[in-house]
Amino acid sequence: MKTASNSPSSYSGGITVKSPQEMDAMRRAGAVVGATLAVLRESVKPGIKTRELDAIANREIKKLGAKPAFKGYRGFPATICASVNDEIVHGIPGDRVLREGDLVKMDVGAVDDGFIGDAAITVGVGNISPESADLIEVTRLSLEEGIKAARGGARVGDIGDAVQKFAEARGYSVVREYVGHGIGRFLHEDPQVPNYGPGGRGALLRRGMTIAIEPMVNIGGWHTRLQDDQWTVVTADKSLSAHFEHTIAINDGEAEVLTVPR
Ligand code: MG
Description:
Blueprint: E1 10-12, E2 15-17, H1 20-43, H2 50-63, E3 67-68, E4 80-84, E5 87-89, E6 103-112, E7 115-124, H3 130-149, H4 156-169, E8 173-174, E9 180-182, E10 189-193, E11 210-213, E12 216-218, E13 224-226, E14 233-235, E15 241-243, E16 246-249, E17 256-257
Antiparallel strand pairs: 1-2, 3-6, 4-6, 5-14, 6-7, 8-12, 9-10, 9-11, 11-16, 12-15, 13-14, 16-17
This protein binds magnesium ion.
């Protein structure tokens, strides 16, 4: 059945609020992203090139009847972002070979029926150090904390506050210079969703809004540097970084995670 993708979104405080039909399209796009990440997770092994992971994602997204959302976005040349070790986000897949002990962050976006899903995972390559495993787990859990804080009636600052408190209490820092975002027909919509507080500030969250929460957590400091390719963001002190992201829908109670396989 054709969805009402031609009907305009409504707005609250400048933020799009999706109709039930639009939310269904968000669910379909999210499911494509979730399923693609599940395949990528299983594909990571020592010896694979990030370019090969990109090809796998491209094939998977198309097989599921969707299109890559990142390819061509502001000139980004690939389907996924693949960022390794001290690379935080926006790494360009290429001939880099993953080695035992590396951390690879894979960020996937897909468009289905005009709406976009966006999510990321961090995966250890083969056996990883206990320090790396802890960083991954704390980052994943900090996303969970952010999602728990993202309810109708809360403010955007409550999300970052929850993420930051969780990660910093465990000795890590959260990246400030890159943030999560509203999402829908466009990859980046209002509001910006920082991974730091204070709570109680920022846009009011309302049922029907869809946002991408994406904590980037570092073992060292939070400062970043942009590589010469003008895409890859690395930690300024070369410390390890992890990244998890989900696209979620705001409800009156607990948020619905959209970027999961269905
Ligand atoms: Mg994102």
